[in-house]
Each structure stands twice: as structure tokens, then as C-alpha cells.
């Protein structure tokens, strides 16, 4: 949607396909980070965006056993917004699509599901889509696959996926929220369990982190057992867990971290989760996808206007965005390895000394906030003033420092490993 908006803004005819008749999906991300808010500011959309109902997260922390900690403080991140905006992604998509519709070259087609690629002499020139009125062929100078971690685009193109092993899955569900509930509480860790609570005003969008592949075992133990697990880790939810009456209220998100070896073919480019599926840790995925969209628009707009798009230009998007992707995934993979320590301690847990030591490093919360909120190699709208080179170097150093901090918490020597490849 962001890429469609940016291309239409440049007077390039663009068609966006969405297979559903709305954007309402509970499993979609909620976090709009300072890097994305900076882009909205550069586009002149920030003031209107902030009128959409949202919550503002100025810090992120939690409770590890009986040890409360702050992981990130966003008060010092660069840009106009010193917070993460918590907004259901369907509201964000509705906002962006409304802004994009102001441009006559923007065409959003709901209930259009791409089912196969159109090819000619090895070049992709569009898709065949399933619509309420039957099949339709949509031709394009370039097809951009933005269809997520289960991307049909990349499957149809037979692009090679490099997988990184992930030890967790997440159960998503809603539970009501009271004004007296703890504020800015982003994680509850105890009794071998992890519970994430995202403030959506009158309810929490909740994520219960489990060992990968164990959801069926949990269902066999029953819903009462699951409700008791929630109360054990967050006692203040005791009077609300009975809101969960059916397993249909609880959705399984199978966590993946992977990336394409090559993001492009002649006439085809994949970005966002279609090119690199991210873990929900830190809520970084949506913001990396938006950074991809901005880089794509910056690199391809002139060529699209002049009808001289080449595969090398498509490859330039990967060259631009692969480093921040791989560094961010490295941090996430190392963070996930720490979950094994938690799963292996089913009783009352004590915070390891490494966590306490890192949490007390002066400025570490600002450094972590910079990595989460701004990221590595943040993009800017073409024509806008770029940050000086020093800040770019700081952004890269921040990513490396975050990787070091995560590894220290795990209490292991730092190693740079090549992910296991699945062909």
C-alpha cells in the first residue's frame, strides 16, 4: 500500500490487489515505529495520521520473574515522534489507501487474489487474478510481490528461500483491558511462559509465546489449563480469562525468519515479508516492509516514468535493503535462543545476572530504542533532506551493539553464523 501510494504520487499508474474485501486481520502488526512516523512527516501526512485513534508507547519493558525492567526508551530517538504508535494495521491500511485514492493513477482492487504469474520469454509481465466476476489478467511493467510470508508470488516464481530456525510460535487472542492494568508493560516472563500485552484501548491484543509445534498438545490439555497459565503469569487478568470460551478465539501464528537468496526476476520484485519474513519480536516487520517500499520507489520511479526498467534496477533494491534485513534477522535469531532458557524453567524464574547487568548499562535503553524504532539504514522520501553521514554510521553501530547486547544476555560468545538453507 505504501509503495502504491508513493508511485501514484509520482504519477505512475499503479494497481494494488487485495484478496479480501477488507483489511481486518487480527494477526497483522500493530506497531508504527518512529522511522515510519518520520516518513509520514516527510510526506505531509503525519498530522492526519495522528488523528486516527491510537496509543503511544514511549517505552517498552516488562517483568522477568520478580524483576521489572525497561528494554527501550524512545524519548531520544531522532525525528518528530518520540514514541511507537500502537494502531491496528487495518486502520493504518485504510488511512494509506484513502490518501492514495486522491491520485487518479492509483487503482485499489479488493477481492482480487493473484493466482499465477503471466510470463513471456522468461519475463514476468503481470498476474492472473481470481475476482468475484471470474478471472482477470492484469499486465504491468513490474510486478511487486508484497503478499507476506506465505507469498504466492515467490512460490510461483520458484525463488529460493533461506530459512533460519525459529523455536517459537505465538498464540494471538483478545482479552479486555482495565484502566488500572499496568501501563507500558510489554512482556510478562515467568513459570516457563511469556505473555505479550498490546494496549488497544479497551482491550489487549495478547500474544502468548509457546515452544514451536506444541499448540496441539495445549489444546489436548484443554482451555481451562490455558486460562490457568494466563492467570499464573498475569494474576490481574484473573477476572477476565473466562472471556476465552473457544479455541477459535485463539489464532496460531507460526513464526518464521527467512529471506530470499534473490528478490527479483525480469519483471518481478519481492519486498517486505515476501522477501524476508521477520519474527514479531520488536514489531519490526511492518516497518522494514515500509522501508523496502520507500527504497523501491526511490530507486525505480524515474525508470518507470521513462519506460526503461531493467532487472539490474530491480536488483539494486535488494542491494540497498539486504544488509539491514540480515543484521535485523541476526539480532532476532539470537534473541529467540534466549527463549529456550525460559521454557526450561517451569517454576518461578529469577532474572539472570546478565540481564540485570545489561539493563543497568547507562544509555542501553536509548540504544535499544534506536535499533527498534529507527533501525539500520532508515530510508527517506526522495527529495527530502537526508540525515548527515554520522547519523547513518550511528544507525549501523546501533544495530551491531544491539546484536552484542542480545548475545551478552544469552551469556554466550558472539558468533556470526550462516543460517541453515532450505531449498
As a percent range, the share of strand residues is 15-25%
Shape: globular
Give the assembly state of these chains.
single chain
Largest sheet: 7 strands, mixed
Spatial sequence of strands, sheet with the most strands: 5-4-14-15-16-13-17
How many DSSP helices? 13
**Total beta strand runs:** 20
Helix/strand/pairing class, anyone?
alpha+beta
As residue ranges, the low-confidence spans are 393-398, 400-423
Rg calculated over all Cα atoms? 22 Å
Distance between the termini: 30 Å
Mean pLDDT: 88
Helix content: 25-40%
Structure characterization notes:
- It is a single chain.
- This protein has 423 residues and is an alpha+beta fold.
- A seven-stranded mixed sheet has the order 5-4-14-15-16-13-17. Strands 2-6-3 form a three-stranded antiparallel sheet. Strands 8-9-10 form a three-stranded antiparallel sheet.
- It contains 13 helices and 20 strands.
Attribute tags:
single chain, 423 residues, alpha+beta, 20 strands, globular, disordered C terminus
Task: Please summarize what this structure is.
The protein is an alpha+beta fold. It contains 13 helices and 20 strands. The strands form 6 sheets. A 7-stranded mixed sheet has the order 5-4-14-15-16-13-17.
Secondary structure blueprint with pairings:
Layout: H1 2-9, E1 14-18, E2 31-32, H2 34-42, H3 46-49, E3 55-57, E4 59-64, E5 67-73, E6 84-86, H4 89-100, E7 106-110, E8 113-120, E9 123-131, E10 134-139, E11 143-145, H5 152-157, E12 161-164, E13 168-176, E14 185-190, E15 193-199, E16 203-211, H6 215-221, H7 223-233, E17 251-253, E18 257-260, E19 264-265, E20 268-270, H8 285-305, H9 311-337, H10 339-343, H11 353-359, H12 364-373, H13 389-410
Parallel strand pairs: 1-7, 4-14, 11-20
Antiparallel strand pairs: 2-6, 3-6, 4-5, 8-9, 9-10, 12-18, 13-16, 13-17, 14-15, 15-16, 19-20
Helix pairs in contact: 1-4, 1-8, 8-9, 9-13, 11-13, 12-13
Amino acid at each position: 500500500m505504501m509503495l502504491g501510494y508513493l508511485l501514484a504520487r509520482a504519477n505512475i499508474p499503479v494497481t494494488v490487489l487485495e484478496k479480501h474485501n477488507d483489511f481486518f486481520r487480527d494477526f497483522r502488526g500493530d506497531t508504527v515505529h518512529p522511522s515510519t512516523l518520520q516518513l509520514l512527516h516527510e510526506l505531509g501526512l503525519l498530522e492526519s495520521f495522528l488523528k486516527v485513534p491510537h496509543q503511544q508507547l514511549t517505552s517498552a519493558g516488562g517483568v522477568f520473574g520478580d524483576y521489572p525492567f525497561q528494554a527501550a526508551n524512545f524519548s531520544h530517538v531522532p525525528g518528530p515522534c518520540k514514541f511507537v504508535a500502537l494502531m491496528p494495521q487495518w486502520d493504518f491500511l485504510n488511512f494509506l489507501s484513502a490518501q492514495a485514492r486522491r491520485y487518479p493513477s492509483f487503482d485499489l482492487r479488493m477481492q482480487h487474489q493473484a493466482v499465477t504469474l503471466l510470463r513471456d520469454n522468461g519475463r514476468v509481465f503481470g498476474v492472473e487474478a481470481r475476482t468475484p466476476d471470474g478471472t482477470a489478467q492484469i499486465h504491468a511493467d513490474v510486478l511487486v510481490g508484497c503478499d507476506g510470508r506465505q507469498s504466492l508470488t515467490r512460490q510461483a516464481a520458484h525463488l529460493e528461500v533461506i530459512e533460519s530456525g525459529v523455536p517459537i510460535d505465538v498464540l494471538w487472542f483478545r482479552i479486555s483491558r482495565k484502566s488500572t492494568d499496568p501501563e507500558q508493560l510489554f512482556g510478562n516472563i515467568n513459570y516457563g511462559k511469556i505473555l505479550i500485552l498490546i494496549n488497544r484501548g479497551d482491550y489487549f491484543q495478547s500474544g502468548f509465546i509457546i515452544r514451536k509445534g506444541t499448540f496441539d498438545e495445549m489444546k489436548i490439555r484443554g482451555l481451562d489449563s490455558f486460562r490457568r497459565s494466563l492467570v499464573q503469569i498475569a494474576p490481574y487478568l484473573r477476572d477476565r480469562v473466562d472471556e476465552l470460551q473457544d479455541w477459535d478465539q485463539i489464532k496460531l501464528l507460526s513464526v518464521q525468519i527467512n529471506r530470499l537468496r534473490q528478490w527479483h526476476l525480469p519483471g518481478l520484485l519481492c519486498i517486505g515479508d515476501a522477501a524476508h519474513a521477520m519474527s514479531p519480536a520488536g514489531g519490526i516487520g511492518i516497518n522494514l516492509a515500509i522501508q523496502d517500499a520507500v527504497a523501491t520507489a526511490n530507486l525505480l520511479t524515474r525508470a518507470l516514468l521513462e519506460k526503461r526498467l531493467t532487472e539490474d534496477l530491480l536488483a539494486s533494491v535488494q542491494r540497498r535493503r539486504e544488509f539491514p534485513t540480515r543484521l535485523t534477522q541476526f539480532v532476532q535469531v539470537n534473541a529467540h535462543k534466549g527463549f529456550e532458557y525460559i521454557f526450561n524453567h517451569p517454576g518461578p524464574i529469577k532474572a539472570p545476572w546478565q540481564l540485570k547487568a545489561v539493563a543497568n548499562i547507562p544509555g542501553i535503553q536509548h540504544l535499544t530504542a534506536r535499533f527498534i524504532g529507527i533501525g539500520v539504514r532508515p530510508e527517506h522520501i526522495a527529495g527530502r533532506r537526508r540525515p548527515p553521514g554520522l547519523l547513518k554510521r550511528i544507525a549501523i553501530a546501533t544495530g551491531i551493539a544491539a546484536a552484542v547486547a542480545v548475545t551478552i544476555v544469552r551469556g554466550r560468545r558472539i558468533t556470526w553464523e550462516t543460517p541453515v538453507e532450505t531449498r
